[in-house]
Amino acid sequence: MRSYRYASHAAVLLIAAAMSSYGATNLALASRPGPITAQAAAEGSQFGDVVLGRDSTIIKPISIPTAALPDRRPVRYIVKAGDTLDSIAQAIGVTWREIVWSNPGLRVPLKAGLALRLPPVPGVVVMVKSGDSPAGLAGQYGVDVTTILGFNNLRASDLTPGLVLVIPVDPQTGPNLSTGVPADPIAPGALVCPIQGAPIIQKFGPTSFALEPPAQGYLHFHSGLDVLAEYGTPILAAAGGKVTAVGYADYFGIRVAVTDSYGLVEIYAHMQDVGVALGQPIQQGQLIGHVGSTGLSIGSHLHLQLDVGGLAIDPTPLIGCS
Fold first, then answer.
1. Phi then psi for 10, rounded to 5 degrees?
2. 191-319 adopts what CATH topology?
């Protein structure tokens, strides 16, 4: 024990002697405020976390990450029996709109065994098509070209058809229309009332109203919301997207269908007339047409329906309905 103690003491003395040859000034640097000057650098000083030595320029500590970097690849999820858009969204931590957005052509109810692509961050998973360019995708989704290329660790020349990309989209901004303007500037991902201040007189779901057709296992089912308004009242787009249907359709009467920027379909029915054309890009709040009572209707009102994957779902909440 004694020999080990003497050896340790000798080692300490040896290290101290070696350090003293570096110079007393460099051994104990003074930390002081003030500008970095040539004299201060020569004397050897410390300014915050920057150390100046006599024989060196600037030495700055390196910050080393303590957590693993997030995985930027799309999340692959296999649908299980009983899964719904809402249950998957809660389990994975995404919104159900992002699920529909990232899987075009998705049909509900979901079938067990179906493979879904989900974004690892707020945004969308897309497959590059022929003719796509970084600038075109950036404009379509409302992001910078550098965001797309940097997040996916790509060069512009790497963008080839069939490549799967994750495009981060700010949830406070939302997606753009194909024209590059914001699709939903009021509240991204939310629907606004097509007739501001108007009351909802019939809600979504099973009903005893005999005129409603059977649906979703019920004898009579109301597939949307009825908003009360007088003939000729302007109807505004609940969300931004593209007009995918115009004209007369069964009990809807004169109707307009808009597929929004997330892939959801809004149907405006019983209209008096139409103010848009097939294929036209529509921004949230833009005029769609005017209230009427065409089709299976007993008075002037607007029927608003929201279809997801071919199934009608409840469009509420609507911002601005009374």
1. -65, -40
2. Glucose Permease (Domain IIA) (2.70.70)
Task: Kindly state the tokens that stand for 203.
Answer: 């809600």
The four Cα atoms 285, 287, 293, 297 give a dihedral, to 10 degrees, of -40
Which amino acid is residue 131, in one-letter code?
Answer: G
Cα 178 to Cα 11, 120, 189: the distances in Å are: 72, 24, 17
The pLDDT, as a whole number, for residue 11 is 46
CA nearest to 110, candidates 308, 315, 314: 308
Helix (H, G, I), strand (E, B) or coil at 65: coil
Q: Which residues contact 277 (CB under 8 A, 6 or more apart)?
A: 243, 246
* Mean local confidence (pLDDT), 223-250: 95
pTM: 0.74
8 Å CB contact between 194 and 301: no
Q: How confident is the model over 305-316, as a mean pLDDT?
A: 92
Q: Note the CATH architecture for domain 75-168.
A: Roll (3.10)
DSSP-derived secondary structure letter, 268? E
76 vs 46, residue with greater confidence: 76
For the cut 80, the answer to whether the pLDDT of residue 31 exceeds it is no
In the chain, where are the structural domains located? 2-59, 75-168, 191-319
Q: Which residues pair with 215 in a beta bridge?
A: 218
